[in-house]
Structures are given as structure tokens and as C-alpha cells.
Amino acid sequence: MGGENDELLDADARHFLRRTGFGALKRDFDQIRSAHETRGHAADRFLAFAAKPPRFRPNGRDFSSAHNKWIKTLIRPRAPLQAKLVLFWHDHFSTAFAKVQDVALMADQIELLYTQCAGDMRVLVKSINKNPAMMEFLDTVRNRKAIPNENYARELQELFTLGVEDFAGNPNYTQEDIVQIARAFTGWDYDRDAFLDDNRHDFMDDFPARGPKVIYKTTGGFGPGGRSFTVNGEGEAEIDTVIDIIFQHRDTDGKNTVARRTARRLLEYFAHPDPDDAVVDEVVMNSGFDTNFNIAGLVRAILVHDAFYESGAAAPFTASTKKSVKWPVDFLVSTVRLLNIKLKGKDQTLEGGNFASALDHLSNMGQVLMDPPSVFGWDWETSWISSATLLARYGFARDLTAARGRGGTSFRPERLVDLGTRTAGAIVDDVTDVLGVTDQLSGSERGALVQYVSDGGGANATVDLDDYDVRNTKLHGLFALVMQSPAYQLH
């Protein structure tokens, strides 16, 4: 069992960099190893942005330009862990341009996530309540007192906070809770900022048949009387009061429901699928997240926990080794960063193969930022990998290694590895080091790469990389094969 004072050795340092940013760049790896950083020191350094988060707003004339601006920023992030957290919350509070149809509103929401991604989750959810893009996406602007619209009230509980069921499989809320919470959000609209139109709001005196505004009479540990969300008055205060009550909700194990569910999702995101319940409870307890709801503190507790490093173990792997499939945006951004390539122009084009843009490549891989497929966000893990999307990943690797543009837009492997006459084994190790997967490859996988480079001559066979034709086929091809390998698709 390890702890926050454990030094990050090679495999763990690379894992930490892959999961808290985009690729284990050599300079970042060297910084961790030369300073003998511990889990705690590295986590604190990467979370330092939380004190004064850099702002970013992916605006533009149209959707493509806004999307491309975000990709460009991810390739050179000021705070990698901040960028990673924003992607998590972007999926969690899934909002799609396909319905919102307003680039400025989408940009405002992403800016909100950048500024609040590591703060108090209660504040973040209250901000999302009043975010115009979310108000459009989940129909708050169409929620009127005559016939309250239940969309946001349902997803606020199901997806953003409580979850449908607790860890024991018991329901966290009822249909009546959805109905009552929908009343709180009636009459809300926005101009530039959100505001309440009292004339369209459901006041109890106007609808006595609907009863008092009380929720969680049968769940949450509040007792049969439930909790009223009018204790701070009717009108504007109601939607904040609803959030305060939700964050006090306790499951049938007597534990804070929002804290447990959020911790599980962040463990799934940063570590691996299906974390143990005991691990979830440990990171909540170690961070105090069930009382302070500080996101940075919860993330730190995850980043120093053994469970975070389980999927970073070096090969050979066992059946119990837990791995996580890279998101398409992570696959693309990490690769461009590791190989020090610049995508070209305002369209962020990759100058190889069919000269497709980053947006086109990501669309083929199954992930377009600012346009998730539904309110549920994207399906993670093996759902990222279908016959079509896996071929799209392979195609991206092929096109990248075929890039023959000028300057930084071309793929220049000679800048990444030593040339000259060298053994096939050394060349393979250099390339897998650049891509950060040396310790993730099995002996047979490395052997197959050696056989490719040496034309079957083995690890000690010499290869002349000064020869342009050899370099153009073997070295470029080797990079493509490693990027297409299972090890490179996984964290």
C-alpha cells in the first residue's frame, strides 16, 4: 500500500502525466523524476491552478472555429489538469450545440467550467442552473407555471447530482420529487444573464392543488416530512435552496449521496472503470468532500490513492489489471503534443493523408467537443471502440506519420530519435519512449515491432536511419504501428 509520500517512479510518473494532462512529455517526466517528486507533491503542483484558474472561452464566428480554438488550447494548455477537469464536467453537464444552436452560449458555458472546475461543487451546480446554454438545452426557458417542464429537474438529479439509484440499488428520488423541483425552475429565462419572470413562476398560492413545495419525503434521510425548498422564500431563492437540499441528501447507507456518486465518476475518469465502493468512500473521507464539496481536494485524494496507480502498472499485465480507454480528444491531443506537431491554420488541419481537420478526425472517432450525442454525454471505455471508430484512430495515426508539410506542421521523427546506424531494439525503445508506452508493451508486442524494423533480423540487427528511404518507411511506419497498438489506446 502506498501513500502521498511515495516517490513517483518511472511507470507511475508517466501514468500521472497521461491522466492529469495529455501525454507524458519528456520534459514533464524529467521534471518529476529529477525532483524525486512524491504523489502528493505532483498532485499539489498540478492542482495549483485552482487558486487562480486561467480563463478560456472558445468563441468564434461559427461552430467549427470555436471547436478548433478549443483544440488549439488543449494542445498547449496553461494548466493541463484544469483542461482535463473541464472535459470531465463538459461530459457531466452535457450540453449540445445541435440543440442550443448558439456558439456564444456554448462558449460562455465552457468558460464557466474553466473558472469553477476545481472549486465548490455546490457553487458549480448553482451556476449551471442559471447557465443560458443549459437553460436552452434542458428546456428551462420553456418551463412555465401552467404546465411545468420536468426535463431539467429530472436530469439535475439523475445525471448531475444524485444518480437514479444509490450504491445499494435503492432509488434516490421519486417522480414526485421531479414534479416539485420542476416548479422551482418555472419562469426562468435569460437575456444575457439568467433572470426570473415572476409572472411565469409557480407560486403556491396560485396552485394550491399542487401542494407545498416539499421534496424527499421517502428518500434522502430527511424523514417523512421531507424538506421544503421555500424556507428562504419563494421565487428566485428556490433553485439555490433545491441545490442546498440535494447536497444534504443521504443514501440508504447513511452516506452523502452526491459525494459518493461524484467521487465514483471522478475515479472512473482519472483511474479506471468500476472502482471499489471502499475506495470511493476512502477518497471522500480523506478529502472531506461530503462536507466541503471542494473538487480540488477530492481530485487530490484520488491522485495520491493506490487505486489511481493500478492501471499505470507496467507490463506484463494480469486479468485483474484495470485499464481505461483513451477518449478520442485525449488520443488526438496527446499524440500531437508528444510528436511536437502543429495543426495548420484556423481549421487545425493535419497535413497528411486526406488533409482532414482535427474536427473531422474527432468526428470520425466519435467525439466532437461542444456537441455530445445526448444529455447522457458520451459513452466511455469500450464504447469508444467500434470497428468504425477504431479504424478512424488508425487512420489518424497513418495520416499523421504521412504529414509532409513545412516546419512544425510536418512529422519529423528525426527530431525525436537519434538517427544513424543503430540496432532495431534500440530504435523500437526510442520510439516507444517518445510515445510513453515502453513499460506498457508486452515482450511479444515489442518483439513484433522489432521484427518489423529489422525485417525479421531481430533486436540486434542494425538499421541505417540515415538512409532516407529506410527512415521514410521503417521509422515513420514504426511510429504509426505504436500509435495503433492496444497499449497506446489505453491508459
What would your notes on this structure say?
- The protein is about 50% helix and about 5% strand.
- Strands 1-2 form a two-stranded antiparallel sheet. It has a two-stranded antiparallel ribbon with strand order 3-4. A two-stranded antiparallel sheet has the order 5-6.
- Among the domains are: about 10-45 and about 255-310, no CATH class; about 415-490, no CATH class.
- With about 500 residues, the chain is mainly α.
- The radius of gyration is 25 Å and the shape is elongated.
- The longest helix has 16 residues, at about 470-485.
Overall pLDDT metric: 96
Overall 3D geometry? Answer: elongated
As laid out across the biggest beta sheet, the strand order is 1-2
* H-E order: HHHHHHHHHHHEEEEHHHHHHHHHEHHEHH
What quaternary form is this? single chain
Instruction: Kindly state the percentage of residues in helix.
Output: 40-55%
> What percent strand?
under 5%
Task: Give me the number of helical elements.
Answer: 24
Give the class from helix and strand content and strand pairing.
mainly alpha
- Calculate Rg over CA atoms: 25 Å
Biggest sheet record: 2 strands, antiparallel
N- to C-terminal distance: 21 Å
Low-confidence stretches: none
Number of strands: 6
